[in-house]
Amino acid sequence: MLNKLILFSILFSIITQTRAQQHYNFGSPLDIPLLLAGNCGEIRPNHFHTGIDIKTKGVEGLNIYSVEDGYISRIRVSPYGYGHAVYVTHYNGLTSVYAHCKGFSGEVQKLAYSQQKKQQNFEIDYQPTKDSLKVKKGDLIAISGNTGGSSAPHLHFELRDTKTENAVNPLLYGFDIKDTITPTIRSLKIYGLTKEGYRVPGKAKKYTVTGSLGNYRIGTNTATINSSYCSEEGGIGFAFDVYDRLNGAPNICGIFEAFLLVNGDTVFTQNMTEISFYSFRQVNTHVDYEEFKNGHKYYHKAFKTIHNPLPIYRKNINNGIIKAIPGKTYDIRYIVKDVHGNESNLFFSLKVEEGEITQKQILYPGKQTLTPDSSFLSYDKNYYIMFPSGILYEPTPLLLQANENNISFGNPAIPLQSTFKIMLPITNNEVKPNKFFIQRNSSSEKGTVKDGWITSRVKSFGTFSVQIDTLPPKIFGRNFSNNSTVGHRKLTWNINDEGSGIVDYDIFIDETWYLLEYEPKQASYFFIPPKSLNGTKFVIIRARDHCGNTGEAKYTLTF
After folding, report:
1. CA 193, CA 362: separation in Å to the nearest integer?
2. Which region holds residue 451: left if phi is over 0, alpha if psi is between -120 and 50, else beta?
3. Whole-model pTM?
4. pLDDT tens digits, 231-268
């Protein structure tokens, strides 16, 4: 069985990589050696990383090239997420994505600016028609940067299946990236599980893993659990804190594939060949979420709940839940690999102590719970909550407290897959309806007011209250004064709103719209005057919040 598994794994990797390299001959997106800060499938907050992060020597401004012939199919500009991003659809069935750019180049830049001007908005998401702007392999399309959710200068590069829009692993497509380093296994965790794959509170045990160069072990090579982990309906499960590194960079990266064997039989496998954007938030159930959030440990579960729809699992028996029996000992092997075939192995024995086995694991005795497969509806004069099924990853105790001023619902540390509906009463009838918003902890949530209630859909537990925002945003120039000569240097502003949050911002010069940009990492709104702008001009900065309050600042400046 073991030899068959190894042979299957080798053949699968060779066939996948060979097929990719035979049908595609991509160029490099940069003209420097490719060193990675992150790879495809890496664990990130609320998502799997869907591309590779290519280092740009710690600087911005490097040329970015199209990796193959195609056409510009999408241009996105946002202060968040991918920042400045350009998509190129190729004629081979794949689309390449270049994100966190400082800006675009040539005709791509002209097209982006024309849409920003047309929409009078910094943020755009524009999809040109097919072949309206063609590019060739090696054409300059953008400049590298640090925009959006980037924490340091780099290029986020993706390949997507054009038809399904799934992200495919770029390292399977022949890019010249050196990797001779085997994955690292740091620790092991064993859980008591219900038949649905839910973790039983208080039934988890950790073991430190030691080793190097692909060979790993735990202590005396035996892990021991007591019989209370076992049940007739449920079983036990394993998770492994594991990561990978590539040559030339110290950054922690993700694994490509893993196999769990029990007594020589393969019971669970995962493979990061392709990632669906529609399910990748399910990373929160694939990993031990608490370990990742609190200690930045990368525990990949070698089991799954019955609700986990991720398509990354290639083979599993009973969802990886092992029907362990008290008094028995099991031989366990965990194999983990990267895209380039570097492999690490962990061997150990699992000993289950003698003892009675229960029929069913009880998760939260005596407590009312919310569960993944059931909905929850609750209301009174102070609130209305409609919590549909499919939002939770595992059961959690119901926490609900409400009074006339606010409502506290759920544990904010628990992630949710999608939104639920919350309604709160409006008690002040003297304020216009559009001036109300819902505040969740320190964040604002947009809402709709109707018939004396404000309604919103939120994706987090927390404490909620109704707030009023009648104050306009405040605007302050940072590096210039009114009635001054500014030339063509970059001008910056602070725009602050203590209520519902900024939703729109613009600059008008002699009543003509110009591009005002926003960089949240610097909390800066900025304007770079074009060379064609000369003379003394009347300038207005205008900002609007979610409740429709508009603030203005007026200047007379000489360019």
Report:
1. 10
2. left
3. 0.93
4. 999 999 999 999 999 999 999 999 999 999 999 999 99
